[in-house]
Automatic annotation (TrEMBL):
<feature type="region of interest" description="Disordered">
    <location>
        <begin position="1"/>
        <end position="25"/>
    </location>
</feature>
<dbReference type="GO" id="GO:0015605">
    <property type="term" value="F:organophosphate ester transmembrane transporter activity"/>
</dbReference>
<keyword id="KW-0813">Transport</keyword>
<dbReference type="GO" id="GO:0015120">
    <property type="term" value="F:phosphoglycerate transmembrane transporter activity"/>
</dbReference>
<feature type="compositionally biased region" description="Polar residues">
    <location>
        <begin position="1"/>
        <end position="12"/>
    </location>
</feature>
<feature type="transmembrane region" description="Helical">
    <location>
        <begin position="282"/>
        <end position="302"/>
    </location>
</feature>
<dbReference type="InterPro" id="IPR004696">
    <property type="entry name" value="Tpt_PEP_transl"/>
</dbReference>
<feature type="region of interest" description="Disordered">
    <location>
        <begin position="77"/>
        <end position="96"/>
    </location>
</feature>
<protein>
    <recommendedName>
        <fullName>Sugar phosphate transporter domain-containing protein</fullName>
    </recommendedName>
</protein>
<dbReference type="Pfam" id="PF03151">
    <property type="entry name" value="TPT"/>
</dbReference>
<keyword id="KW-0150">Chloroplast</keyword>
<keyword id="KW-0812">Transmembrane</keyword>
<feature type="domain" description="Sugar phosphate transporter">
    <location>
        <begin position="106"/>
        <end position="395"/>
    </location>
</feature>
<keyword id="KW-0809">Transit peptide</keyword>
<feature type="transmembrane region" description="Helical">
    <location>
        <begin position="376"/>
        <end position="395"/>
    </location>
</feature>
<dbReference type="GO" id="GO:0031969">
    <property type="term" value="C:chloroplast membrane"/>
</dbReference>
<dbReference type="InterPro" id="IPR050186">
    <property type="entry name" value="TPT_transporter"/>
</dbReference>
Amino acid sequence: MQSTAISFSPSISLPKKPHRPSGSASLCRFNPLSQPLRFGSLNGSTARKINPISCSSSSKLNRNGWISVPAPVPERESDGVEVRATSVPESAGEAPKSKPMTETLVLGSLFGLWYLFNIYFNIYNKQVLKAFPYPVTVTLAQFAVGSVLVILMWTLNLYKRPKISGAQLVAILPLAAVHTLGNLFTNMSLGKVSVSFTHTIKAMEPFFSVVLSAMFLGEFPTLWVLSSLLPIVGGVGLASMTEASFNWAGFWSAMASNLTNQSRNVLSKKFMVRKEESLDNITLFSIITIMSFFLLAPYAFFTEGVKFTPAYLEAAGLNVNQLYTRSLIAALCFHAYQQVSYMILQRVSPVTHSVGNCVKRVVVIVTSVLFFRTPVSPINGLGTGIALAGVFLYSRVKCIKSKAKTE
């Protein structure tokens, strides 16, 4: 509730002791034209005015409303009377606590959505690829749904539509190309081997990041970074040796996905446009999604033709409604988890995001094993665990390295 501040001005001096008037008396009247008393508030609200009492010297009563009062005894100058009260919100004491708590809840919710969308994407995507083994067409459908969502987002002003220059499009084109290949190779691997094995191989992304950064950016790893790569490579090798669904097509597709995804990160550092013309992550991802659709569409039609029509699916003996529904859910989750991933990246450091990505991979592997009842031998599980532990160690080493640079 807002309080009112009261201010009396000018100051009025009061006599200690009344005495009889001598020769001339002080005459005072209620003068509406003189300086007003002010009733205001500290927070800048409009002051309320009350007309003050003016004083003048005269020897007798005047018909204009003057009255005779004793002359005041001289006294020290008064500071005036001021009464001030400010409004204090009832939740003022809770603000410093509630804000971090709210931010923590929002961040936790984003991480939960990131993991949830990723789980549903992998499950529904695997079901679609098992029934419809055309990864190029499936990937094109995912880019198509993502492009529609981006256009709706810009049209409805849910996110600011960017103004793209020709230089920016040229700079983004190689990023879109490797983004297209990365997702295509991932779907190719998911169609050939189990979800858990694909994500175990994709745990080798730090290895490719270190190699490509050294080759193209001149960023050579420290001894600690190299040490963290050993359990990653060893764990993936151990898991591959005992993987029940292992085949070379699925293995090399996942490795190619690692290569292209990490190439995207290196290219974004090396070839991106000037800082003042750079785009935020969500806008950049949105543009890349649309460009990836146009890049992949000709290749999809040339290699796999038009095989997503109801007539073709019915002729192949597939449940059209079920396949379309699962494909749509997979595409929505594909776009949603990447959007949420970039939203998280805007709130946390890249190292924290990397640790969260490692945990996400563990969650996806465990849930896919349980859902698809994937057979896992003890050595296979041990290899997967060692590889994921290496990824976590790599993230911690990078965190220490980044702190050392800051200091």
